[in-house]
Amino acid sequence: MDTVRKTEEIEDESEEWVYNYYGRERVEQFREEGREEGREEGREEGREEGREEGREEEKRKNVLHLLKMRYSIKRIKAILQISEDEILRIARGNNGIIL
Predict the structure, then answer these.
(1) Counting Cβ atoms within 10 Å, is residue 90 exposed (0-12), middle (13-18) or buried (19+)?
(2) With the CA atoms of 40, 42, 47 and 49 taken in that order, what torsion angle do they form, in degrees rounded to the nearest 10?
(3) Is the terminal CB of the chain with fewer CB neighbours within 10 Å at N or C?
(4) Given this model, what pLDDT does residue 24 score?
(5) Phi (first) and psi of residue 97, to 5 degrees
């Protein structure tokens, strides 16, 4: 008998034991709670990623707006409190005019 078949048999026996010990309804409830917890964690991660993307987009818009208004990099750095390298990265990535 190969190891894959043995593993499947052990898993089947283990699953059957869990069903017998806790009851099928309770096991299904555990599974559903786990799925819901996983979905909630996923939604929270998605919200945090969305917030971060929003902050990055706002920073990008502000830098480009100030560049269009012909502000210097040093002035933008002072206003937005971000590094000159970050300002240059944003400007280059969006074909901005650098003074």
Answers:
(1) buried
(2) 160
(3) N
(4) 78
(5) -85, 125
pTM of this prediction? 0.54
Q: Are 64 and 33 in contact (CB under 8 A)?
A: no
Tell me the C-alpha distance between 70 and 75, whole Å. 10
d(CA 49, CA 51): 5
Tokens of 61: 């818009």
CA 10 to chain CA mean position, Å: 36
Amino acid symbol at 13: E
Interacting residues of 73 by C-beta distance below 8 A, sequence separation 6+: 84, 87, 88, 98, 99
* Tokens matching residue 16: 């059957």
Q: Is the pLDDT of residue 68 over 60?
A: yes
